[in-house]
Amino acid sequence: MSDAFGGLGVDGKMMILGIADGPVEINSVQAIMGHRSVMGWPSRVAADSQDTLALSARSGGAATDQGLSA
After folding, report:
1. What contacts 22, CB < 8 A, 6 or more positions away?
2. Of 37, 24, 27, nearest to 68 (Cα)?
3. What letters, b where the CB count within 10 A reaches 16 and e where it falls short, cover 27-49?
4. How far apart are CA 33 and CA 22, in angstroms?
5. Of 48, 50, 41, 36, whose CA–CA distance to 16 is shortest?
6. Are 39 and 26 in contact (CB under 8 A)?
7. 70 falls in which pLDDT band (50, 70, 90)?
8. Residue 62 CA to chain centroid, in angstroms?
9. Which residues of 53-69 are buried (b: 16+ CB within 10 A; e: fewer)?
10. Is the dihedral of CA 20, 12, 52, 50 positive or negative?
């Protein structure tokens, strides 16, 4: 996720839909100068995440789903 943050456009937002295996680090210069942000979304059921991704697609956002290895 940290690498993907640098690929966000100006005013880009990264939404975290699942728990990461360890800390997520971002470059503060990229965040401030690009007006980028990171936010978490505590989903309790899969349908909530699907609705969130559908909203992103309808509003022109590009979303990716990155799973965790077991």
Report:
1. none
2. 24
3. eeeebeebebebeeeeeeeeeeb
4. 26
5. 41
6. no
7. very low
8. 10
9. beeeeeeeeeeeeeeee
10. negative
Identify the residue whose tokens are 């990264």: 14
Rounded to a whole number of angstroms, the distance between the first and last alpha carbons of the chain is 17
Q: Which two tokens stand for residue 50?
A: 């699907």
- Structure-block tokens of residue 22: 């360890």
Tokens of residue 68, six digits: 């965790």
pTM over 0.70: no
| Residue 13: both structure tokens together | 């937002």
Q: Which two tokens stand for residue 55?
A: 């909203």
Residue 70 one-letter amino acid: A
**pLDDT tens digits, one per residue of 3-59:** 888 888 899 888 887 777 788 888 899 999 999 998 887 767 778 778 877 887 888
